[in-house]
Write a structure and sequence with these properties.
The chain is an alpha/beta fold and 270 residues long. Helix content is 30%, strand content 15%. It has a five-stranded parallel beta sheet. The chain has a two-stranded antiparallel ribbon with strand order 3-4. Bound molecules: ligand JD8.
Length: 270
């Protein structure tokens, strides 16, 4: 996968040199290029913002530097210099991803969608955001996804890109040691994860649940499912309702009913 990131704070993305993402880059699974938006300004002050039309607080990011940046990264007339398109993804058709509080919620499902793309271009906004015409113009030649991490307000898009890339890159083949762990994790089956434990068997007078040391894998699996159900019912009841709800079997419903959790008839698996 090829990833291009455009920002006025390139140093904000230096964590992408570290740990598993850093290793994925050295292994060639992932190619990341971080670009300073000011490279595409031409005035002595390298200006990237201006006052908002219609008035209001703050400043808005100017369209011109963004337009030139995206033209260079995704040339309107197709791969630069007639590239094969099969190159290192540098000139593969890409998807523009724009973090914004006004975006669609970022989810594990969207992470899987993005992980299937050969190329992602991230536009990191600052100030009050990016002039909307930059996205409208880009949408003329590539898919554009405006995405939000959640209902709280950040200073800009950079940390959102770090979060999104971590969720996406760990889904790429060859990044996670044993891909199995992708199967059992949170949200993989629509439930929150059960609590986890390791040695010592007792710590500060707190014992590890006996069942986990029983070796009875069937009873351990059931215990973990029950814990996941209870945790999900307490912390994320929204995950148990509606179309994306995990298929609950009879035993699941008994566990939830015993906690007083109302299972709506709709959620009853066939
Ligand atoms: C991009 C500029 C700041 C936002 C005025 C504060 C995502 N879940 C999220 N919360 N906030 C963001 C986010 C915030 C951003 C930018 C993403 C670019 N800002 C602006 C509008 C209100 N300031 C985000 N993903």
């Amino acid at each position: 996968m090829r990833v291009d990131i455009v920002t006025i704070f390139p140093e904000y993305l230096s964590p992408l040199d570290l740990s598993l993402i850093g290793r994925a880059r050295s292994a060639g699974v992932l190619e990341v290029a971080v670009h300073d938006l000011r490279r595409w300004t031409h005035d002595v002050h390298r200006t990237v913002d201006d006052t908002p039309y219609g008035g209001g607080p703050g400043m808005v990011m100017r369209p011109e530097p963004w337009g030139e940046a995206l033209d260079e990264l995704v040339p309107p007339d197709g791969p630069a210099g007639g590239g094969s398109g099969g190159g290192s993804g540098g000139d593969a058709p890409g998807r523009l991803v724009v973090p914004t509080p006004a975006g669609v919620p970022f989810t594990q499902a969207l992470a899987h969608e993005l992980a299937a793309e050969p190329r992602l271009i991230f536009a990191c906004g600052r100030y009050e955001g990016i002039d909307q015409r930059v996205l409208d113009d880009a949408a003329r030649r590539m898919p554009v996804t405006e995405v939000s991490l959640g209902d709280y307000v950040l200073f800009g898009g950079e940390v959102a890109v770090l979060v999104i890339l971590e969720a996406v890159v760990r889904l790429l083949p060859g990044v996670l040691g044993n891909a199995d762990s992708l199967v059992e994790e949170s949200h993989a089956d629509g439930l929150l994860e059960a609590p986890v434990y390791t040695k010592p068997p007792t710590w500060r007078d707190l014992p590890v649940p006996e069942i986990l040391r029983s070796g009875d894998h069937a009873r351990i699996a059931r215990w973990r499912r029950d814990q996941a159900l209870l945790r999900t019912a307490r912390r994320r009841p929204d995950l148990l309702a509606g179309p994306a709800a995990p298929g609950l079997d009879g035993r699941d419903r008994d566990v939830l009913r015993d906690t007083g959790f109302q299972i709506s008839p709709l959620d009853m698996a066939e």
